[in-house]
Amino acid sequence: MNARKTSGIAALGALGLLSLGAASAKDASTPGTSPAPATHQVPRSAEGNVVIALCDGETTLEVKGVKDPARIDKKQAQAISDQLMAEWYRKNPQANWDPVPPRVALAQPPTPPPAAKADVKKQGESASSDAAGVAKQKGDEQAGHTYGAFSARDEALWKASAEQMVKEGHRVFHDSKELGSTVAISCDMCHPDGANTHPETYPKYQVQLGRVALLRDMVNWCIENPVRGKPLAEDDPRMKAMEAYIFAQRKGVKLEYGKH
After folding, report:
1. Which pLDDT value is given to residue 20?
2. Are 57 and 21 within 8 A, CB to CB?
3. Shortest CA distance to 222 belongs to which of 193, 190, 177?
């Protein structure tokens, strides 16, 4: 993200670009039934141009001369995001935003040491933890386990695997095509480097959804609305990777579920 994408363009958890307009979550009329799916409505352009809105339901922008969303490229999508956010800040001058976090996801994973030179960490050492077996490992694959004895190589392999998932999440988060966007919008355009996503506050009630939501629910909400894509399955590798990336960007922040 370039230098101009500072905290001023970040959006708080649920605040992001929407191409379907203002949120409305209606409770089901019959007790015991699920609420009707939340939808967004935006004013239509008299000229048939594309209209994109923030999820505050008030701030909108008509993209002059563009009737086909597919014509919007990444540069134009970012300019649209900037204009909408600038207008939102103008109307909400007291809004406070977290600074853009460091790019921890871009760090290179550590190189695992050779098995023959790997020290053994004897956490939970017992016959079942096989500390002796771990000490004798010679192959390239891990031989220890989290709750028993494991070597420095094991630890490095585990860390490298986790970092690889975070790195993949970073890639998807910044790639509108991977997100299935039909308007060239990607998550980073409102949340540069994962800023103001606040994963540590989930689960919490989200007015847009009309229910308690998990982080993945809000990720899908943004994919369906701002991005104009299709929601991802919970076990979709892209969803898992993005969750890993978003949480990695908040490393060290205490958990406060339900916080707004």
Report:
1. 38
2. yes
3. 190
182: DSSP letter: S
Q: pLDDT digit string (tens) for 223-250?
A: 887 787 899 999 999 999 999 999 999 9
* 211: three-class secondary structure by DSSP: strand
The number of angstroms, rounded, from the C-alpha of 57 to the middle of its chain's C-alpha atoms is 21
The tokens describing 76, both together, are 């134009």
The amino acid present at 125, given as its one-letter code, is E
Residues 6+ apart with CB under 8 A from 117: none
Contact 113, 153 (CB under 8 A): yes
Alpha carbon distance, N-terminus to C-terminus of the chain: 26
pTM of the model: 0.71
Signed CA dihedral, 88, 191, 22, 255: sign only: negative
